[in-house]
Amino acid sequence: MRNPWNLTSLVFAVVLACAAASCGKTVSDAVDDTTITTRVKTAILNDPAVSGHRIDVDTFKGVVTLSGQVKSETEREQATALARATSGVVEVKDALIVENP
Known about the structure:
Layout: H1 4-23, H2 27-46, E1 55-60, E2 63-70, H3 73-84, E3 91-98
Parallel strand pairs: 2-3
Antiparallel strand pairs: 1-2
């Protein structure tokens, strides 16, 4: 009689490896990036200087990209500073647009 757990484990390992390979990240990288994104979004939401703006946060291998619109250069700098101060962030790419420069 075959052990169904061995086949299930093998299928799970192959699916997991394919998923990781298809996006260029390991599973732990994806979890870390999700955690970093959540931390940055939380920092932005908790800061009254920038919390009212729609700032998108994307993370890939610890590199955070901020995009969206802010009202001033000061708000742009604050959002970028918050991202840089977040644990796990390797680099911050600023793609924010100042509405009225």
